[in-house]
Amino acid sequence: MATTTTSVGSSILSALGANSGIDTSALVTSLVSATRDPRQSAITTQQTTNNARISALASAVSSLDTFADALSSVLAGADYKGTPNSSNSGLASVSLLTGGTPSGLPAQMVVKSLASARVYASTQATGATGSTAVGAGTMTITTAAGKTATITVGSSTNNSFSGLASAINAANIGVTASVVTDAKGTRLVFKGETGAANDFTVTTSATDSTSILAGLNSSAMTSTSDPANAKITLDGTDYEYASNTIDDAIPYLRIELTKADPTSTVNLSMSQPTATMKDLLKEYVDAYNTLMGALNTATSTGTDSSTAGVLNGVGAVRDMKTQLSKITSTQLAATGNYKTLSDIGIATNRDGTLTLDTDALDKAMAADPEGITKMLNPTMPTADNPGLSKLMDTVRDNLELDNGSLKLAQARYETLADDLTEQLEKLDEDMADYETRLTSIYSAMQTKLSALNATQSYLQQQIDAWNKSDS
To answer: Which domains, and CATH codes, for the chain?
Structure first.
Protein backbone atom coordinates (compact mmCIF):
# COMPACT_ATOMS: atom_id res chain seq x y z
CA MET A 1 0.00 0.00 0.00
CA ALA A 2 2.74 2.45 0.93
CA THR A 3 4.73 1.66 -2.21
CA THR A 4 1.69 2.18 -4.44
CA THR A 5 0.81 5.48 -2.73
CA THR A 6 4.37 6.77 -3.10
CA SER A 7 4.36 5.83 -6.80
CA VAL A 8 1.09 7.71 -7.32
CA GLY A 9 2.53 10.76 -5.55
CA SER A 10 5.62 10.71 -7.73
CA SER A 11 3.47 10.41 -10.83
CA ILE A 12 1.42 13.43 -9.81
CA LEU A 13 4.60 15.42 -9.18
CA SER A 14 5.97 14.42 -12.58
CA ALA A 15 2.72 15.22 -14.40
CA LEU A 16 2.38 18.64 -12.79
CA GLY A 17 6.04 19.53 -13.28
CA ALA A 18 6.49 20.40 -9.69
CA ASN A 19 9.92 21.80 -8.95
CA SER A 20 10.81 21.34 -12.64
CA GLY A 21 11.75 24.99 -13.07
CA ILE A 22 9.86 25.47 -16.35
CA ASP A 23 10.91 28.80 -18.03
CA THR A 24 7.67 29.76 -19.76
CA SER A 25 9.28 32.95 -21.16
CA ALA A 26 11.94 30.92 -22.97
CA LEU A 27 9.29 28.45 -24.09
CA VAL A 28 7.19 31.26 -25.62
CA THR A 29 10.26 32.70 -27.34
CA SER A 30 11.13 29.31 -28.81
CA LEU A 31 7.60 28.72 -30.08
CA VAL A 32 7.41 32.18 -31.66
CA SER A 33 10.81 31.72 -33.25
CA ALA A 34 9.85 28.31 -34.62
CA THR A 35 6.81 29.88 -36.29
CA ARG A 36 8.50 33.09 -37.47
CA ASP A 37 11.87 31.88 -38.75
CA PRO A 38 10.77 29.79 -41.78
CA ARG A 39 8.37 32.49 -42.99
CA GLN A 40 10.89 35.29 -42.41
CA SER A 41 13.65 33.33 -44.15
CA ALA A 42 11.44 32.78 -47.21
CA ILE A 43 10.58 36.49 -47.44
CA THR A 44 14.16 37.72 -46.94
CA THR A 45 15.38 35.25 -49.59
CA GLN A 46 12.86 36.74 -52.02
CA GLN A 47 14.00 40.21 -50.99
CA THR A 48 17.63 39.39 -51.69
CA THR A 49 16.82 38.05 -55.15
CA ASN A 50 14.45 40.91 -55.95
CA ASN A 51 16.87 43.60 -54.78
CA ALA A 52 19.61 42.03 -56.88
CA ARG A 53 17.33 42.17 -59.92
CA ILE A 54 16.42 45.80 -59.27
CA SER A 55 20.10 46.68 -59.01
CA ALA A 56 21.06 44.65 -62.09
CA LEU A 57 18.27 46.17 -64.20
CA ALA A 58 19.27 49.68 -63.12
CA SER A 59 22.87 48.86 -64.00
CA ALA A 60 21.82 47.54 -67.43
CA VAL A 61 19.83 50.69 -68.20
CA SER A 62 22.66 52.90 -66.93
CA SER A 63 25.19 51.03 -69.07
CA LEU A 64 22.99 51.42 -72.14
CA ASP A 65 22.62 55.15 -71.47
CA THR A 66 26.36 55.54 -70.94
CA PHE A 67 27.12 53.65 -74.16
CA ALA A 68 24.69 55.72 -76.27
CA ASP A 69 25.73 59.04 -74.71
CA ALA A 70 29.44 58.28 -75.04
CA LEU A 71 28.98 57.40 -78.72
CA SER A 72 27.14 60.67 -79.37
CA SER A 73 29.80 62.61 -77.49
CA VAL A 74 32.66 60.98 -79.39
CA LEU A 75 31.09 61.56 -82.80
CA ALA A 76 30.28 65.16 -81.92
CA GLY A 77 33.88 65.86 -80.91
CA ALA A 78 36.58 67.44 -83.01
CA ASP A 79 38.37 64.10 -83.48
CA TYR A 80 35.59 62.91 -85.79
CA LYS A 81 34.11 66.20 -87.01
CA GLY A 82 37.23 68.31 -87.38
CA THR A 83 37.97 71.70 -85.81
CA PRO A 84 36.50 75.01 -86.99
CA ASN A 85 39.06 77.71 -87.73
CA SER A 86 39.05 81.46 -88.26
CA SER A 87 41.85 83.11 -90.22
CA ASN A 88 41.57 86.22 -88.01
CA SER A 89 40.37 85.50 -84.47
CA GLY A 90 40.94 89.19 -83.66
CA LEU A 91 37.85 89.94 -85.77
CA ALA A 92 35.86 86.74 -85.23
CA SER A 93 36.35 83.41 -83.46
CA VAL A 94 34.44 80.18 -84.13
CA SER A 95 33.43 77.06 -82.19
CA LEU A 96 31.33 73.95 -82.74
CA LEU A 97 27.71 73.70 -81.64
CA THR A 98 26.35 70.32 -80.60
CA GLY A 99 24.05 68.26 -82.79
CA GLY A 100 25.84 68.09 -86.11
CA THR A 101 28.75 69.09 -88.33
CA PRO A 102 29.01 72.58 -89.86
CA SER A 103 28.09 72.64 -93.54
CA GLY A 104 28.94 75.25 -96.15
CA LEU A 105 32.58 75.62 -95.17
CA PRO A 106 34.98 77.06 -96.16
CA ALA A 107 33.33 80.49 -96.24
CA GLN A 108 34.50 84.09 -96.45
CA MET A 109 33.16 86.68 -94.02
CA VAL A 110 33.53 90.44 -93.62
CA VAL A 111 32.63 92.05 -90.27
CA LYS A 112 31.16 95.42 -91.24
CA SER A 113 29.97 96.51 -87.79
CA LEU A 114 29.33 95.08 -84.34
CA ALA A 115 26.02 94.91 -82.54
CA SER A 116 25.67 97.59 -79.86
CA ALA A 117 23.25 98.46 -77.08
CA ARG A 118 21.66 101.69 -75.83
CA VAL A 119 23.66 103.07 -72.92
CA TYR A 120 22.58 106.02 -70.76
CA ALA A 121 24.81 107.65 -68.15
CA SER A 122 23.41 110.02 -65.53
CA THR A 123 25.06 113.25 -64.45
CA GLN A 124 27.75 112.64 -61.87
CA ALA A 125 26.80 113.54 -58.30
CA THR A 126 29.87 115.16 -56.75
CA GLY A 127 30.86 113.70 -53.41
CA ALA A 128 28.20 110.97 -53.60
CA THR A 129 28.72 107.25 -53.02
CA GLY A 130 26.69 104.17 -53.76
CA SER A 131 24.77 104.62 -50.50
CA THR A 132 23.81 108.25 -51.18
CA ALA A 133 20.03 108.77 -51.28
CA VAL A 134 18.57 109.60 -54.71
CA GLY A 135 15.16 110.87 -53.52
CA ALA A 136 11.57 109.62 -53.45
CA GLY A 137 9.28 109.04 -56.42
CA THR A 138 8.92 106.54 -59.27
CA MET A 139 11.06 105.35 -62.17
CA THR A 140 9.57 103.68 -65.26
CA ILE A 141 11.68 101.78 -67.79
CA THR A 142 10.04 100.91 -71.12
CA THR A 143 11.67 98.74 -73.80
CA ALA A 144 10.96 98.85 -77.52
CA ALA A 145 9.73 95.25 -77.17
CA GLY A 146 6.88 96.51 -74.98
CA LYS A 147 8.19 95.48 -71.57
CA THR A 148 7.68 97.96 -68.72
CA ALA A 149 8.90 98.11 -65.15
CA THR A 150 7.88 100.78 -62.66
CA ILE A 151 9.93 101.10 -59.48
CA THR A 152 8.68 103.04 -56.49
CA VAL A 153 11.70 104.73 -54.92
CA GLY A 154 11.76 105.84 -51.33
CA SER A 155 12.17 102.74 -49.19
CA SER A 156 15.30 102.10 -47.17
CA THR A 157 16.27 99.34 -49.61
CA ASN A 158 16.15 101.28 -52.88
CA ASN A 159 16.58 104.98 -52.03
CA SER A 160 20.26 105.03 -52.96
CA PHE A 161 22.37 104.58 -56.07
CA SER A 162 23.14 100.96 -55.17
CA GLY A 163 19.61 100.15 -54.01
CA LEU A 164 18.04 101.57 -57.16
CA ALA A 165 20.52 99.71 -59.39
CA SER A 166 19.61 96.44 -57.63
CA ALA A 167 15.89 97.13 -58.10
CA ILE A 168 16.39 97.81 -61.82
CA ASN A 169 18.37 94.60 -62.31
CA ALA A 170 15.78 92.61 -60.36
CA ALA A 171 13.05 93.85 -62.75
CA ASN A 172 14.64 91.61 -65.42
CA ILE A 173 13.29 93.36 -68.53
CA GLY A 174 16.53 93.46 -70.52
CA VAL A 175 17.94 96.63 -68.98
CA THR A 176 20.75 96.53 -66.42
CA ALA A 177 22.09 99.28 -64.18
CA SER A 178 25.46 99.73 -62.52
CA VAL A 179 26.87 102.28 -60.09
CA VAL A 180 30.07 103.98 -61.26
CA THR A 181 32.14 106.04 -58.82
CA ASP A 182 35.29 107.88 -59.83
CA ALA A 183 37.19 111.04 -58.83
CA LYS A 184 34.36 113.22 -60.13
CA GLY A 185 31.54 111.56 -58.22
CA THR A 186 28.91 108.82 -58.59
CA ARG A 187 26.41 108.11 -61.36
CA LEU A 188 24.10 105.39 -62.69
CA VAL A 189 24.79 103.75 -66.03
CA PHE A 190 21.89 102.01 -67.81
CA LYS A 191 22.51 99.41 -70.54
CA GLY A 192 20.02 97.57 -72.75
CA GLU A 193 20.45 94.47 -74.89
CA THR A 194 22.32 94.66 -78.19
CA GLY A 195 20.33 95.05 -81.39
CA ALA A 196 18.45 97.79 -83.19
CA ALA A 197 15.11 96.51 -81.88
CA ASN A 198 16.22 96.63 -78.22
CA ASP A 199 16.06 100.35 -77.44
CA PHE A 200 14.57 101.59 -74.14
CA THR A 201 13.59 104.81 -72.35
CA VAL A 202 13.72 105.87 -68.70
CA THR A 203 11.23 108.31 -67.18
CA THR A 204 10.99 109.48 -63.57
CA SER A 205 8.53 111.33 -61.38
CA ALA A 206 10.33 112.76 -58.34
CA THR A 207 8.75 114.23 -55.21
CA ASP A 208 11.57 116.79 -55.14
CA SER A 209 12.44 118.25 -58.55
CA THR A 210 15.98 118.99 -57.33
CA SER A 211 16.69 115.41 -56.24
CA ILE A 212 19.04 113.07 -58.07
CA LEU A 213 16.04 110.92 -59.07
CA ALA A 214 14.58 113.84 -61.05
CA GLY A 215 17.58 113.72 -63.38
CA LEU A 216 17.49 109.96 -63.97
CA ASN A 217 15.44 110.05 -67.18
CA SER A 218 16.38 109.59 -70.82
CA SER A 219 16.03 113.26 -71.73
CA ALA A 220 18.36 114.38 -68.94
CA MET A 221 20.97 111.63 -69.24
CA THR A 222 23.74 111.25 -71.81
CA SER A 223 23.42 108.46 -74.38
CA THR A 224 26.90 107.05 -74.89
CA SER A 225 25.86 104.25 -77.29
CA ASP A 226 22.98 103.68 -79.72
CA PRO A 227 21.35 100.27 -80.32
CA ALA A 228 22.40 98.67 -83.60
CA ASN A 229 22.64 95.26 -85.27
CA ALA A 230 25.83 93.47 -86.17
CA LYS A 231 26.35 93.54 -89.93
CA ILE A 232 28.36 90.91 -91.77
CA THR A 233 28.84 89.70 -95.31
CA LEU A 234 29.05 85.93 -95.72
CA ASP A 235 30.14 84.68 -99.13
CA GLY A 236 28.98 87.97 -100.65
CA THR A 237 25.54 88.06 -98.97
CA ASP A 238 24.72 90.69 -96.33
CA TYR A 239 23.25 89.65 -92.95
CA GLU A 240 22.25 91.48 -89.76
CA TYR A 241 22.09 90.04 -86.26
CA ALA A 242 21.02 91.55 -82.93
CA SER A 243 23.95 89.92 -81.12
CA ASN A 244 27.68 89.62 -81.66
CA THR A 245 27.29 85.90 -80.93
CA ILE A 246 25.88 84.35 -84.11
CA ASP A 247 24.57 80.77 -84.12
CA ASP A 248 22.37 80.93 -87.21
CA ALA A 249 24.68 81.92 -90.07
CA ILE A 250 26.25 78.46 -90.54
CA PRO A 251 24.61 75.29 -89.14
CA TYR A 252 26.32 73.97 -85.98
CA LEU A 253 28.90 76.79 -85.98
CA ARG A 254 29.03 79.63 -83.44
CA ILE A 255 30.66 82.86 -84.64
CA GLU A 256 31.81 85.37 -82.01
CA LEU A 257 32.34 88.84 -83.48
CA THR A 258 34.98 90.86 -81.61
CA LYS A 259 35.92 93.71 -83.93
CA ALA A 260 34.63 95.34 -87.10
CA ASP A 261 36.87 95.85 -90.14
CA PRO A 262 35.04 96.28 -93.46
CA THR A 263 38.36 96.09 -95.33
CA SER A 264 39.37 92.62 -94.09
CA THR A 265 38.12 89.18 -95.08
CA VAL A 266 37.94 86.40 -92.50
CA ASN A 267 38.23 82.86 -93.85
CA LEU A 268 36.16 80.28 -91.94
CA SER A 269 37.06 76.62 -92.43
CA MET A 270 37.11 73.15 -90.89
CA SER A 271 40.25 71.13 -90.32
CA GLN A 272 40.09 67.44 -91.18
CA PRO A 273 39.20 64.94 -88.41
CA THR A 274 42.24 63.47 -86.70
CA ALA A 275 40.50 60.12 -86.08
CA THR A 276 39.23 57.76 -88.77
CA MET A 277 36.02 55.77 -89.01
CA LYS A 278 38.17 52.67 -88.52
CA ASP A 279 39.24 54.01 -85.12
CA LEU A 280 35.61 54.67 -84.28
CA LEU A 281 34.41 51.21 -85.25
CA LYS A 282 37.13 49.50 -83.24
CA GLU A 283 36.15 51.50 -80.14
CA TYR A 284 32.46 50.90 -80.86
CA VAL A 285 32.87 47.12 -81.11
CA ASP A 286 34.93 47.00 -77.90
CA ALA A 287 32.41 49.11 -75.96
CA TYR A 288 29.46 47.17 -77.38
CA ASN A 289 31.05 43.84 -76.42
CA THR A 290 31.62 45.08 -72.87
CA LEU A 291 27.93 45.94 -72.61
CA MET A 292 26.74 42.67 -74.18
CA GLY A 293 29.20 40.65 -72.08
CA ALA A 294 27.71 42.10 -68.90
CA LEU A 295 24.20 41.28 -70.12
CA ASN A 296 25.25 37.73 -70.99
CA THR A 297 26.67 37.23 -67.49
CA ALA A 298 23.53 38.64 -65.87
CA THR A 299 21.27 36.32 -67.93
CA SER A 300 23.41 33.15 -67.88
CA THR A 301 21.61 29.90 -66.99
CA GLY A 302 24.51 28.50 -64.96
CA THR A 303 24.77 24.89 -63.88
CA ASP A 304 21.91 25.33 -61.41
CA SER A 305 19.83 28.07 -59.77
CA SER A 306 22.66 29.00 -57.43
CA THR A 307 25.03 29.82 -60.30
CA ALA A 308 22.51 31.33 -62.73
CA GLY A 309 22.71 35.04 -63.55
CA VAL A 310 20.55 37.35 -61.47
CA LEU A 311 18.54 38.38 -64.56
CA ASN A 312 18.18 34.85 -65.94
CA GLY A 313 14.64 34.46 -67.23
CA VAL A 314 13.84 38.19 -67.23
CA GLY A 315 12.09 38.80 -70.54
CA ALA A 316 12.87 42.51 -70.62
CA VAL A 317 16.61 41.82 -70.76
CA ARG A 318 16.15 39.21 -73.47
CA ASP A 319 14.27 41.87 -75.45
CA MET A 320 17.11 44.31 -74.82
CA LYS A 321 19.68 41.86 -76.15
CA THR A 322 17.51 41.07 -79.18
CA GLN A 323 17.12 44.72 -80.15
CA LEU A 324 20.83 45.40 -79.70
CA SER A 325 21.72 42.40 -81.87
CA LYS A 326 19.75 43.89 -84.79
CA ILE A 327 22.02 46.94 -84.98
CA THR A 328 24.45 45.36 -87.46
CA SER A 329 21.65 44.71 -89.96
CA THR A 330 19.77 48.00 -89.47
CA GLN A 331 20.00 50.44 -92.40
CA LEU A 332 22.16 53.47 -91.67
CA ALA A 333 21.99 54.93 -95.19
CA ALA A 334 19.36 54.69 -97.93
CA THR A 335 21.79 54.94 -100.85
CA GLY A 336 25.27 53.79 -101.73
CA ASN A 337 27.03 50.45 -101.78
CA TYR A 338 27.36 50.33 -98.00
CA LYS A 339 24.19 50.72 -95.94
CA THR A 340 24.66 48.65 -92.77
CA LEU A 341 27.42 47.74 -90.34
CA SER A 342 27.42 44.19 -91.67
CA ASP A 343 28.20 45.59 -95.14
CA ILE A 344 31.53 46.94 -93.86
CA GLY A 345 32.72 43.92 -91.89
CA ILE A 346 30.91 43.92 -88.53
CA ALA A 347 29.19 40.63 -87.71
CA THR A 348 27.09 39.47 -84.74
CA ASN A 349 28.34 36.35 -82.93
CA ARG A 350 26.06 33.67 -81.48
CA ASP A 351 26.42 35.15 -77.99
CA GLY A 352 25.40 38.61 -79.24
CA THR A 353 28.87 40.15 -79.20
CA LEU A 354 30.37 41.70 -82.33
CA THR A 355 33.38 40.87 -84.48
CA LEU A 356 35.13 43.41 -86.73
CA ASP A 357 36.66 42.09 -89.93
CA THR A 358 39.35 44.72 -90.44
CA ASP A 359 40.24 43.40 -93.91
CA ALA A 360 36.65 43.82 -95.09
CA LEU A 361 36.51 47.29 -93.49
CA ASP A 362 39.78 48.37 -95.12
CA LYS A 363 38.47 47.22 -98.50
CA ALA A 364 35.22 49.14 -98.04
CA MET A 365 37.03 52.27 -96.82
CA ALA A 366 39.32 52.18 -99.83
CA ALA A 367 36.36 51.83 -102.18
CA ASP A 368 34.14 54.59 -100.72
CA PRO A 369 35.60 56.45 -97.69
CA GLU A 370 33.24 59.42 -98.05
CA GLY A 371 30.17 57.21 -98.35
CA ILE A 372 31.06 55.25 -95.22
CA THR A 373 31.79 58.43 -93.29
CA LYS A 374 28.41 59.86 -94.24
CA MET A 375 26.74 56.56 -93.38
CA LEU A 376 28.28 56.41 -89.91
CA ASN A 377 28.40 60.11 -89.05
CA PRO A 378 26.16 62.19 -91.35
CA THR A 379 26.30 65.97 -91.17
CA MET A 380 22.52 66.14 -90.83
CA PRO A 381 21.03 62.86 -89.52
CA THR A 382 17.72 61.91 -91.13
CA ALA A 383 15.30 59.01 -90.90
CA ASP A 384 16.93 57.40 -93.98
CA ASN A 385 20.47 58.24 -92.90
CA PRO A 386 20.44 58.28 -89.08
CA GLY A 387 24.11 57.49 -88.59
CA LEU A 388 25.46 55.32 -85.80
CA SER A 389 24.82 57.82 -83.01
CA LYS A 390 21.17 58.47 -83.86
CA LEU A 391 20.59 54.74 -84.37
CA MET A 392 21.89 54.00 -80.87
CA ASP A 393 19.76 56.80 -79.45
CA THR A 394 16.70 55.33 -81.19
CA VAL A 395 17.41 51.83 -79.88
CA ARG A 396 17.95 53.22 -76.38
CA ASP A 397 14.76 55.32 -76.52
CA ASN A 398 12.70 52.36 -77.74
CA LEU A 399 14.04 50.14 -74.97
CA GLU A 400 13.37 52.75 -72.31
CA LEU A 401 9.80 53.67 -73.30
CA ASP A 402 7.58 54.26 -70.28
CA ASN A 403 5.35 51.35 -71.32
CA GLY A 404 8.26 49.26 -72.59
CA SER A 405 9.40 45.93 -71.18
CA LEU A 406 12.37 47.36 -69.25
CA LYS A 407 10.36 50.05 -67.46
CA LEU A 408 7.53 47.60 -66.75
CA ALA A 409 10.00 45.06 -65.34
CA GLN A 410 11.59 47.70 -63.13
CA ALA A 411 8.16 48.82 -61.91
CA ARG A 412 7.16 45.20 -61.23
CA TYR A 413 10.25 44.52 -59.11
CA GLU A 414 9.87 47.82 -57.24
CA THR A 415 6.26 46.89 -56.45
CA LEU A 416 7.39 43.45 -55.27
CA ALA A 417 10.02 45.10 -53.04
CA ASP A 418 7.31 47.19 -51.37
CA ASP A 419 5.10 44.12 -51.01
CA LEU A 420 7.86 42.07 -49.39
CA THR A 421 8.58 44.89 -46.96
CA GLU A 422 4.89 44.96 -46.04
CA GLN A 423 4.93 41.17 -45.60
CA LEU A 424 7.80 41.45 -43.10
CA GLU A 425 5.98 44.22 -41.25
CA LYS A 426 2.81 42.09 -41.17
CA LEU A 427 4.83 39.10 -39.94
CA ASP A 428 6.22 41.23 -37.09
CA GLU A 429 2.71 42.27 -36.13
CA ASP A 430 1.38 38.71 -36.32
CA MET A 431 4.25 37.33 -34.25
CA ALA A 432 3.79 40.07 -31.65
CA ASP A 433 0.13 39.05 -31.35
CA TYR A 434 1.10 35.36 -31.24
CA GLU A 435 3.64 36.02 -28.48
CA THR A 436 1.02 37.93 -26.50
CA ARG A 437 -1.46 35.05 -26.82
CA LEU A 438 1.12 32.43 -25.80
CA THR A 439 2.26 34.53 -22.87
CA SER A 440 -1.36 34.81 -21.70
CA ILE A 441 -1.94 31.07 -22.10
CA TYR A 442 1.20 30.10 -20.20
CA SER A 443 0.58 32.70 -17.50
CA ALA A 444 -2.84 31.13 -16.92
CA MET A 445 -1.20 27.70 -16.91
CA GLN A 446 1.28 28.89 -14.30
CA THR A 447 -1.58 30.13 -12.13
CA LYS A 448 -3.32 26.79 -12.37
CA LEU A 449 -0.06 24.98 -11.77
CA SER A 450 0.50 26.97 -8.61
CA ALA A 451 -2.96 25.94 -7.37
CA LEU A 452 -2.28 22.31 -8.23
CA ASN A 453 1.08 22.52 -6.46
CA ALA A 454 -0.72 23.66 -3.31
CA THR A 455 -3.10 20.72 -3.65
CA GLN A 456 -0.14 18.43 -4.25
CA SER A 457 1.55 19.64 -1.09
CA TYR A 458 -1.60 18.91 0.91
CA LEU A 459 -1.92 15.43 -0.60
CA GLN A 460 1.76 14.74 0.04
CA GLN A 461 1.26 15.61 3.69
CA GLN A 462 -1.66 13.19 3.89
CA ILE A 463 0.29 10.45 2.16
CA ASP A 464 3.22 10.96 4.52
CA ALA A 465 0.81 10.69 7.47
CA TRP A 466 -0.70 7.47 6.08
CA ASN A 467 2.72 5.96 5.63
CA LYS A 468 3.64 6.72 9.26
CA SER A 469 0.47 5.16 10.55
CA ASP A 470 1.09 2.03 8.48
CA SER A 471 4.58 1.69 9.83
So the answer is: 1-82+274-471 (no CATH), 83-114+230-270 (no CATH), 119-225 (2.60.40)
